[in-house]
Structures are given as structure tokens and as C-alpha cells.
């Protein structure tokens, strides 16, 4: 008895099955039928070309976070160079960077909201 059957018997569920024609790595198998997940290469579809790629939600969020971090670091540097105590300078930099980043990061903020709206359909 192999491991998958023992685990399936123990937990009361059958092992997951791969679609016919796919190898364990997910690529089409040379021994089975062609993968049902691959587009046909007949060219009958008018949109047979590659689809335009849009950045994912993670990339958009990373860009937004990086911009906010750079703005905060710049404001903190200026505030500390002015000569404020580090704790007061940190607090002032948090407030000022929030105010400065609102107009400067509006495109990235809208991109994040649009990506969330497309993904979930619940914003706006």
C-alpha cells in the first residue's frame, strides 16, 4: 500500500488527481492527451497572441510601500538635520511624510485600489 492511499484512508479523502495528460510537474505529458489547460495553436482565435501583462497586486503594493518609505526616509533625514531630538524628529517625520505622500503617491494609491477592485469587486 503506497503512502497516498494510506493517508487518504486515514483522513477519509481520496488523493488529488491530476488532469489527464499532465506530468507531475504540470507540463504536458508525451504519453497522454494534450493538456486541457493549454491554448490551441491552430490560430483560429482572433486573440491568439500573448495577452498584455499587468502588474500583480503584490508588485503594486510593493511599489506603493517603497515610495512611502523613501518619502519617510527623506523627511526624517531633513528633520534630523534640522537638529530635532530623534524621538521628536521621528514623530514629526511620520506626520509630515503622511501629508507629503498624499499628493505624491496618488497614482500608486489609485493603482492599488483599482487592483483590489478588479480582484474582489467590492471597492467603490
From TrEMBL:
Transmembrane segments: 64-82, 88-106
Keyword Transmembrane helix attributed: yes
Key words of the record: Membrane, Transmembrane, Transmembrane helix
Stretches with biased composition (Low complexity): 19-51
Region (Disordered): 1-51
Name of this chain's protein: DUF4229 domain-containing protein
Species assigned in the record: Candidatus Protofrankia datiscae
